[in-house]
């Protein structure tokens, strides 16, 4: 076979082999490739807000702010200063509680199970609840209108090493029947005080602080009444006998009323809630012609307005 024939045979074999290999390995390339040109929407994970709102939600009050009271991990000490928005809510709570003296609020404090309790309280949650209550009291709220509880939970929202608002506020339901009964109780006590008022007697130009057992009980009743009836005002009226001129006795009666006011203030009644007056010799209850009558006229009469 000539070289030319061999050359042509080689070309033919190469073509046949190439066609075979193409059909074997590349035939799938002829298939139509489809693509989905629809834009894909990438879902962005929802970021949980890094706050726990301060919420007061009860019958007659509704307040919420994203800021809150805060505590460091393992600590029962409130982080100071407290934000203005939280203080605003506390003042709204104060106004509400003053208008509703029978309302009670239960503060539940929380702590996580991995925190260390170094307080004297049963658990760190209870310690935090009492810390919140004490802060409320420092802002002018009545301690008697709060109860406290503590709970240990698995986790709580934090920012770094700070727990965000680990407390809840539950408003107790007021029993209107009990409220009416309580109102009747204080009305009855006021009537009792005014029907047989506390009368402090004085020697001539002198004051005294020694009280009888009955007088001490009357003071206790007045203190009890003013503690529970926040709008109550105590009235102390000073009197004198008719010895000397009237102007001097008016002054003396006022001094006796002021002495009585100071005495009651020491017993726990806010001095701003005690009014004083002087009648001097104008309203005697005894005969000024006798020593016994004059002694009975030197007095201060204390009632509830």
From TrEMBL:
<feature type="compositionally biased region" description="Polar residues">
    <location>
        <begin position="287"/>
        <end position="305"/>
    </location>
</feature>
<feature type="transmembrane region" description="Helical">
    <location>
        <begin position="5"/>
        <end position="23"/>
    </location>
</feature>
<feature type="domain" description="OmpA-like">
    <location>
        <begin position="189"/>
        <end position="305"/>
    </location>
</feature>
<protein>
    <submittedName>
        <fullName>OmpA family protein</fullName>
    </submittedName>
</protein>
<dbReference type="InterPro" id="IPR036737">
    <property type="entry name" value="OmpA-like_sf"/>
</dbReference>
<keyword id="KW-0472">Membrane</keyword>
<dbReference type="Pfam" id="PF00691">
    <property type="entry name" value="OmpA"/>
</dbReference>
<keyword id="KW-0812">Transmembrane</keyword>
<keyword id="KW-1133">Transmembrane helix</keyword>
<dbReference type="InterPro" id="IPR050330">
    <property type="entry name" value="Bact_OuterMem_StrucFunc"/>
</dbReference>
<dbReference type="InterPro" id="IPR006665">
    <property type="entry name" value="OmpA-like"/>
</dbReference>
<feature type="region of interest" description="Disordered">
    <location>
        <begin position="272"/>
        <end position="305"/>
    </location>
</feature>
């Amino acid at each position: 076979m000539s070289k030319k024939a061999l050359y042509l045979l080689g070309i033919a074999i190469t073509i046949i082999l190439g066609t075979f290999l193409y059909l074997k390995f590349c035939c799938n390339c002829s298939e139509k490739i489809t693509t989905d040109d629809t834009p894909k929407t990438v879902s962005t994970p929802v970021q949980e807000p890094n706050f726990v709102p301060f919420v007061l939600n009860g019958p007659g009050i509704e307040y919420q702010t994203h800021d809150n009271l805060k505590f460091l991990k393992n600590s029962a000490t409130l982080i100071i200063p407290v934000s203005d928005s939280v203080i605003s809510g506390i003042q709204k709570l104060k106004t509400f509680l003053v208008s509703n003296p029978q309302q009670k609020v239960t503060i539940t404090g929380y702590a996580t199970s991995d925190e260390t309790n170094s307080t004297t309280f049963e658990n760190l949650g209870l310690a935090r609840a009492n810390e919140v209550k004490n802060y409320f009291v420092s802002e002018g709220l009545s301690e008697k209108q709060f109860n406290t509880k503590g709970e240990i939970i698995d986790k709580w929202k934090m920012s770094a090493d700070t727990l965000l608002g680990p407390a809840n506020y539950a408003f107790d339901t007021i029993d209107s029947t009990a409220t009416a009964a309580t109102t009747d109780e204080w009305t009855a006590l006021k009537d009792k005080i005014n029907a047989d008022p506390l009368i402090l007697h004085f020697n001539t130009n002198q004051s005294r602080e020694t009280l009888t057992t009955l007088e001490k009980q009357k003071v206790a009743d007045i203190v009890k009444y003013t503690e529970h009836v926040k709008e109550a005002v105590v009235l102390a009226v000073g009197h004198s006998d008719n010895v000397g001129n009237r102007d001097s006795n008016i002054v003396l009666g006022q001094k006796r009323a002021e002495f009585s006011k100071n005495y009651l203030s020491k017993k726990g009644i806010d001095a701003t809630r005690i009014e004083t007056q002087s009648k001097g010799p104008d309203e005697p209850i005894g005969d000024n012609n006798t020593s016994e009558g004059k002694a009975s006229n030197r007095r201060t009469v204390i009632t509830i307005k």
